[in-house]
Amino acid sequence: LPPPLYIITPTYRRAEQLAELTRLGYTLKHVVNLLWLVIEDANQTSPLVIHTLNRIGVPYEYFLAPMPDEYKNTKKAKPRGVSNRNRGLDYIRANATSGVFYFADDDNTYDISIFEQMRYTQKVSMWPVGLVTKFGVSTPIIRNGKITGFYDGWIGGRKFPVDMAGFAVSVKFLHERPNAKMPFKAGYEEDGFLKSLAPLNLTDIELLASNCTEILTWHTQTKKNANASPLNLTLHGDTNLV
Ligand code: UDP
Ligand code: MN
C-alpha cells in the first residue's frame, strides 16, 4: 500500500451540507489508503451526516468540534473550521504514525491526482489553487525550480499567503512539532498554522502539480440556497428536526 492519507474536512450544518459531503466523498472514493476525518462544528452529532457518510462508503471518523462561543457570537469575520481542523490534528497526533494529512474543506473541488502526489510529502508540499479572490489563482511563484514568492489576491502581511487547499503536511513532520496548531484568527489560519510548523523554510517546501504549473484544486463556493432549510431534510422519510 502507498503511504496513508488523512483528509481533515471541517463541516457544519446548513442546507447545502449533505450535497457538499456527497460530492467530496465520491471524489475521495477514488483514492486508496485514505481515512476521511469529518469534523462537524456542532454540539450534537447529526444522523443525516452519519447516514450520508455510511452511504458513500469511504473509511471515515466523525467528530464534533464546535466553534467557541466567543468567535461564533462576534460581528467580525469568524475563524471558520479552525476548531474542526485542530480536532483533526489531535486525532493524527494520537493515532497516525506515518503518511500525510491535508485540510480539505467540504465545498472545494479536487482532482484526484493531487492526492496521489501529496502522499509522498516529506515535510510540506504546495501547489496552486484556482478561484481564489479576483486574481483567480493563489500559487507559489517558481523561478528555476525554487519558490521566490507567492501570488495571491490578498497578501495581508503573511509569510505564507496560501489557501487552505494548497498545501499538505507529513505526519512525521507534525509529530516533531508538538505545539503546531491553527490560530482562531480569520484570514490568517493557513499562515498561522504554517508558521507554527517552524522551522519551515521556503527551500523545504516540495512543489507539486508539475512545479506549480497546473491547477488541480479549486476554492469553489456554493451559492447559498435561501429557501431550503435544514428542517426540510428527511432521512428515511422522517422529518429530521435539526
Ligand atoms: N465551516 C465550519 N463552521 C462554520 C463555517 C464553515 O465548520 O461556521 C467549515 C466549512 O464547512 C468549510 C470550512 O469551514 O469546510 C471553511 O468554511 P467556508 O467554506 O464557509 O469558508 P470560505 O470558503 O468562504 O473561506
Ligand atoms: Mn469554502
Features:
disordered C terminus, 242 residues, single chain, binds manganese (II) ion, 14 strands, binds uridine-5'-diphosphate
> Which regions are unreliable across 5 or more consecutive residues at pLDDT < 50?
237-242
Q: Give the overall pLDDT as a whole number.
A: 95
Give the CA-based shape: globular
Which small compounds were modeled alongside the protein?
uridine-5'-diphosphate, manganese (II) ion
The residue fraction in helices comes out at: 25-40%
DSSP strand count: 14
Q: Order of strands across the biggest sheet?
A: 3-2-1-4-10-6-11
Order of helices and strands: EHEHEHHEEHEEEEEHHEHEEE
Estimated share of beta-strand residues? 15-25%
End-to-end Cα distance, whole Å, is 40 Å
**Biggest β-sheet strands, sense, barrel:** 7 strands, mixed
The rounded Rg comes to 18 Å
Number of helices: 8
Counting helices, strands and paired strands, the structural category is alpha/beta
